[in-house]
Amino acid sequence: MGERPYRMFIDGAWIGAGERPTYPIPNPATEEIVAHAPEGTRGDVGRAIAAARRAFDHGPWPRSTPAERAAVLLKIADGIQARKEQFRALLVAAHAAEAMTHVLQLETPIYSLYNHAELVGSFPWEEEVPTLMVPTKRGMMETHAAVVRQPAGVCALIPTWNFPLFTTLNKIAPAIAAGCTMVVKPSPWGPLVDLLLAEVIAECDLPPGVFNVVTGQAPELGADLVESAAVDKVSFTGSVSTGKKIMRAAAETLKRVHLELGGKSALVILDDADVETAAPSAASPAFFHAGQGCALMTRVLVPRKKHDALVAATVAFIEKKVKLGDPADPTVNLGPVIREERRAAIETLIASGREQGAVLATGGGRPASQPRGYFVEPTVFANVRNHMTIAREEIFGPVVSILPFDDDDDAVRIANASEMGLYGGIVTNDVERGKRVARRIRTGGVGINNATNLLHAPFGGFKQSGIGREGGVYGVHEFTELQTIAWNVSGS
Ligand code: NAD
Description:
A hairpin with a 6-residue loop joins strand 3 and strand 4. The chain is built from 15 helices and 22 strands. It is 37% helix and 22% strand.
């Protein structure tokens, strides 16, 4: 059987097989080629933008009813369900998604579509504000006003590769819910899942031009989307450095900018917590999706007197529970990182940790058991100081830094001493105390005792971790513009 073809979707038509050059997508565990993706051109981006603009300015979609939008969202969810095993196989082969991350990689995005379909019915599309009494020559006059949430317009959606379906649907679902039109430009490292998703969306009877997807490796494809005067909004998930470039470029047209960027989250283990209970959370970034998660708590803060015990418990947990290998094996819970160049960057950061005096408690190298694939050993650094590079920069690999603190004030100070502010965690036996500490931490989210809510609560960053929020109604608000319509009942 030959390789499965993948095609781009522009203005309701497929472009692929034979019409554009392609580039290979490797399996990060085996380095074998999974499939080839179309190498889209800047012309393709231009055509996709023009199609999305036409569909927004002249098509019926922006005026579709909430019920019509909900029906599309449900159809996408059902379409993914019908191809679920195809998506799962691709997530494993092209993204090294190991079995334990499937809930976030596959189930959560599907639930999020059902959730969006439900919330479009109750979303405050139009709300009257209190009547204003205005003095006139003829006495007091009532002025009425309503606030209408209009679709934001043509949206450039630039998701990333680490949780491809999740990050793409966190943009597409609210954009559809709000009645926007869109051009999706997947990460060059993760286009296949988005192209499979395009096959699902193409079956959902959206008018031509509402949904377009252009793949390719050139950074100009994304840059053209951000610079185009025909695009109203850009929603980007990626690194802080690209986010800054996007914000600068978007300033030229005062485009709406929504940025979901990197993190250097702290897990604060309060002194009432048991070290053995906290160890799995502390170890988690050293194996969960090979540390390639924006919100992973890669700085573990522990009371100084419990530091050594936590290091020992974390290393013991890794030795006992982490199985490294090809994620095609369902018993594996630590796969490779996405590309060789990412592994090289991770190794440079690990070397900096050693050079700057952190204590390597485990890992730090390449596993001898894996001659192929972009594997990194689960790595734990102890006695890390917050000024060290490994405590400041996002590593995006299976590396944890454990830092001692003196008291709650010191823990809050260290947690907040970061240019980023995406997420954080607290481990405690006293939830009310945990909430008090959480309110002092300058991050977009804080999870106490491993809690998360990715469907209804907002997700996004303080500081350089981004601008805007995804998730539930908060994510839909990002894809709307507020319009005030005021009226007097009689003439002025
Ligand atoms: P990246 O910054 O390398 O982004 C690459 C993408 O940006 C590609 O699609 C590329 O074509 C595009 N691009 C490059 N230059 C551009 C320009 N000038 N204008 C427009 N687009 C341009 O990031 P990445 O490696 O894809 O993603 C990893 C990062 O994503 C990590 O920092 C991680 O923390 C972050 N992330 C954040 C969240 C979140 O929700 N906050 C979720 C997942 C990942």
